[in-house]
Amino acid sequence: MQRIRPQKLSDVIVQQLEELLLKGQFLAGQRLPSERELAERFAVSRPSLREAIQKLEAKGLVYRKQGGGTYVQEKLSPLMTDPLLNLISQHGESQFDLLEFRHALEGMAAYYAALRGSEDDLAKVAEAFKNVTSSYSDIEQQTTALVSFYMSMCEASKNIVLMQVVRSLQSLLEDNIRRNLTVLKKDKTAAEQINVQRQNIVEAILNSDPELARQASNEHLAFIEETLLNINRQDSRMQRAIRRI
What we know:
Elements (H helix, E strand, L loop, with lengths): L8 H14 L12 H8 L3 H13 L3 E4 L3 E4 L10 H8 L1 H25 L2 H15 L5 H19 L2 H9 L1 H15 L5 H17 L3 H35 L1
Antiparallel strand pairs: 1-2
Helix pairs in contact: 1-3, 2-3, 5-7, 5-10, 5-11, 6-7, 6-10, 7-8, 7-9, 10-11
């Protein structure tokens, strides 16, 4: 067995500050409290806090003004991935928040794709779904195919705002789908139900039934969320059992 290394105090502080950023307690462009205030808040030494701030700065989440304090990042370089999106992808609990957010995005996309999609749009949705069904054996291929499938629904929706939002979140959605597929592999009985649910979404869109398309999408994501939670509970019980041995 490998020896478990104790976590550095500065890393613990980083995690706590990241949680505050995710929860919106520190907004974009806002100045952080002084080092003295933060050190007192977290009950740590100022050197440890300073090291944590440097790590956040290296991640692109905050920046410093000479003699003016530390601020939450406002504008991000187009040459790098949005650090806040990267932060979300690294936090396990945020993955479920993202899955809940997908209910709104994909439910809306399915609804308006069924309502407004042209014959050409619907043909692209059907073709994208064929690629999903032919990629079950490889997680990376299936991830790519699913992202393309959801993008085809968004394009068919004819909603410019929805399309731009999904495009801006594409890397985050791709990461969420990949993670979900990796965990879902542990439940062999879930795959067949998930395939049927996706088929229901496509059929509702192709039959121009908006309400049924949205309902099918929401039921699909709700099933995935519940299945992931059940798998996590089982893994937690297994880990506890192993520790007792």
